[in-house]
## 1
Amino acid sequence: MGVHDGAGPTMTVDSIRNLPEIQRVPWYKWFIDYDPSADIAATRCPVFALNGDHDWQVISSLNLTAIKRLLPKSKKNVTKEYPGLNHLFQHCTTGLMNEYRQIEETIAPEVLSDIAEWINGL
């Protein structure tokens, strides 16, 4: 499995670090080891954090839980998981990256609607 196929549920950070694609691209190596916790905790602007539950690049349940826990408390901050959406917020079957180009939808309408509603509510 390559990095472009998605990590998958059995991959570990160490096994991802050892993928040939990761070894060849310095940015990938930096990205795998980056811990955004301090940056999230230091965020002072309103945040709308969203993920699709079919996202293989960012595990939505872990990502959103951590963001909600780390963000300073504010009624303006929102986290939301979208069922059936991939990393690009498209309705999908598998969520794998090789499926992206087969999907005609650019972005799910409910995501755009929620973003607009959140911005207008600020």
Note: Residues 1-5 have pLDDT under 50 and may be disordered.
## 2
Amino acid sequence: MPDPTRPILSVSGLETRFHTRKGSVHAVNGVSFSLAPGELLGVVGESGSGKSVTMMSLLRLLPTPPADIMAGRVDFEGQDLLSLTEDDLRKLRGSKIGFVFQDPMTSLNPVFTVGHQIMEPLREHLKLDKRAAQKRAQELLELVGIPDAERRLRDYPHQFSGGMRQRVMIAIALACDPKVLIADEPTTALDVTIQAQILELMKDLRQRLGMAVIWITHDLGVIAGIADRVLVMYGGQVVEQAPVKDLFRTPKHPYTRALLSTVPRINGGRAHRLEVIAGQPPILKSAPVACSFRDRCPSATALCAGTNPPLTDHGKGHFVACLNAEMADV
């Protein structure tokens, strides 16, 4: 039995850069976090905040060049994923750690049947013969709620709707019973009805299979309904992390409060005016030496321009990287 108090995944000081003709972009800057067995960790932030790059760095899925993982450690089952050979890492991807990408139409191969693509990791990682792999592939399609699974194994990706293609991607990611599933904005391209179905499916699968999940999204409404704990990212850094209820009840970082103000809500039958976050996320051409949010922050002071604040413990698992975080409690 795994120790429920020991993280199944632990990330320390992760740094990733992209080297381009115009210079380096510091996309991930010292990210650290842990994931407990069975936990669903939400990762939120605007486009360009470093969410996807961070999670793709864990499994070295980024093309090199231009990407370069400069520093850090990713501990999983007693080994550092960043130090593994490519062959060893390939054996781990898809078997112990699954990944669901944002757009299933570009992730699924259009020239192979869905059955072939589900059976591939089963034959590669579990060494199942064709008949056993086909039986398991049918079970997986049934698990993710695709009707007439036996027949649909012979269909191609274009014969499925967007929501069904995403279910196929989830089936592929779950094929080898991974201990960790990373889902990179898997419902972004879907309409709200299908999105709700996928979220309910993931809740059910997580409960039945007991896997830990990292769910990347820009939608705080999604996170509120499924996550146990949340990381808020900005400028390639974690600026706040907290249990989901605490984050929504008492957000402490100005960026988190700004994100929450953009979420549609109705109180007492009255709709609130939607807010916007002025300005644009930074393009970091050097490692941050000051708060990356200061130019957009209504609470910024002169100190913010001279210090890049570290994550500070505010109690009960709530950590904030802000010199003025105490203003949230006033």
Note: The chain is about 30% helix and 25% strand.
## 3
Amino acid sequence: MTAFKNAPDQSYLFPHRHLLSVEELSAETITALLDISDVYADHNRARPSSLTSLRGRTCINLFFESSTRTRTSFELAGKRLGADVINISVGASSIKKGETLIDTATTLNAMHADILVIRHGDAGAVKLLSEKVNCAVINAGDGSHEHPTQALLDALTIRRRVGHLKGLTIALCGDVSHSRVARSNIRLLTAMGASLRVIAPPTLMPNSIGQWGVEAFTDMRRGLAGCDIVMMLRLQKERMQGNFVPSVREYFHFYGLDREKLSHAKPGALIMHPGPMNRGVEIDSDIADDIDLSLIQEQVEMGVAVRMACLDVLCRPNAVSLGEG
């Protein structure tokens, strides 16, 4: 095993059995995960040989929804730590043949995996599965509910570029109503001392937005005024039942990020997008590809480091037995 210049804190014990929601994480826990992720990010950039901290461990990626970035980064994270990683394609599995979610959990439990990484289209499905297995579970996105590792990697990306999270004004723009990324980021970044705004057309603004502890805007230029970070959100067409926007062209005119709208934010404001991007819908290519402003590729890179940290802490000795939930 190649030595770290600054090794992760091996004494840290994650205070939960699973990683299901940002809501259950304290600011101290978030900071600890970001600190460990920071070390893995530096390690990955140095391109040393693979690590062995998860040698002998088995990680199963069970994705009921298609994914490129999240599943690949979890797979890469596990392999870089020396784990045996298994990807289960739901399209070719027994689930498509009529097996229930509980039967699937029972089957996977019999395989004695150490970690299940689960993405599911229904909110609450990952939590249900976590109650039926003996191993640790990581929520890789459940419906419109949460996506905790995305929020962690977004926070790490910002912290590494800006140096801090506290005091920043961060705008989340686009399809807020259907976005699990928005919900997780609002919870995490607020806990870390940032001020959050959401910007969306009325049809894509949650009815409960008044209870989220954020400033809400339907006018993009007003909402971007004075923002340090602008995070664009993808139109979640697969979760929409009906027409929420008149047309893609009109949506971009009012809510797509371009140079003119960005000029209303703080000078030097940074751009983010969880991906996949719809260029010319949520964001103009000129902005997305500007290496001085765009953090989008860094988000992808930090995703591997954050997921290495999460797999690491959930596989540490006594981590599950000491867990709170």
Note: The CA atoms of residues 7 and 63 lie 31 Å apart.
## 4
Amino acid sequence: MTFRAKHLLGIEPLHPTEITTLLDLADSYAEHNRRGIAHRDVLAGLTQINMFFENSTRTQASFELAGKRLGADVMNMGMQASSVKKGETLIDTALTLNAMRPDLLVVRHPHSGAVDLLAQKVNCAVLNAGDGKHEHPTQALLDALTIRRAKGRLHRLSIAICGDIAHSRVARSNIMLLGKMENRIRLIAPPTLMPSGVADFGVEVFENMEEGLKDVDVVMMLRLQKERMDGGFIPSEREYFHRYGLDAAKLAHAKPDAIVMHPGPMNRGVEIDGNIADDINRSVIQEQVEMGVAVRMAAMDLLAQNLRAARGPQEVMV
């Protein structure tokens, strides 16, 4: 297997072979999870610290579950009541953590680049669980695994990413990953929710939902990132759903076997009709959640292998 990374900070540094290696391992973990097979020796003796400076349900829970299934000692730090709230800088937090000698550090932070800064200051493997509007690499990887399992491949597909592109780290990571794997990517959004410089992304851009969805294989809906908005980006939620919410009429423009995705949490009746979200023949939203655990298991497994190799046997804590 080929996976050389010391950290998983984003999709951008990963080579397609590294993406394939991680997805192959995650695929096997997904099957083992379904059969109840434990792998508690993989991270045995290693310490995993989860630091979430932003609220999270799916990502934090799946990282915690992934670590425990692999046998790590998992600690969740309550950052809402941490010393950061008392004025401690991010670098001081990193130095404090480093003194605790963790092996795996999972970080979500509201500011782009904060996770990369932490990675420069600690002597362990760092996984980016989302930083500002920058990246969310494990979400893109679990989306890729979900697509590959549903479609039987992860190349030369037509994939539409719809909604709040401008504020979405999920969109950014997916655009990079799916582009590396030779897919045709369409972005569909109102001009107010389309990022600046989108012409340089190597994608097709649409304002009209029906045109953008024509004959696509995958429809990936995005949540309106209201917490990152500081102005009137949409006239109203009702108008937004009318023009950009996924319903049966709009989905009919995609291929008959097109799958529907959403990273969650969903705003039903705003980004997606509830009937579409629950359609077991089209929606793979629950599969995305399931693949999230498998992808995070694979990512921590591969990073731990590289960490052990770099430290040497005498430095690995058991």
Note: DSSP finds eleven helices and nine strands in the chain.
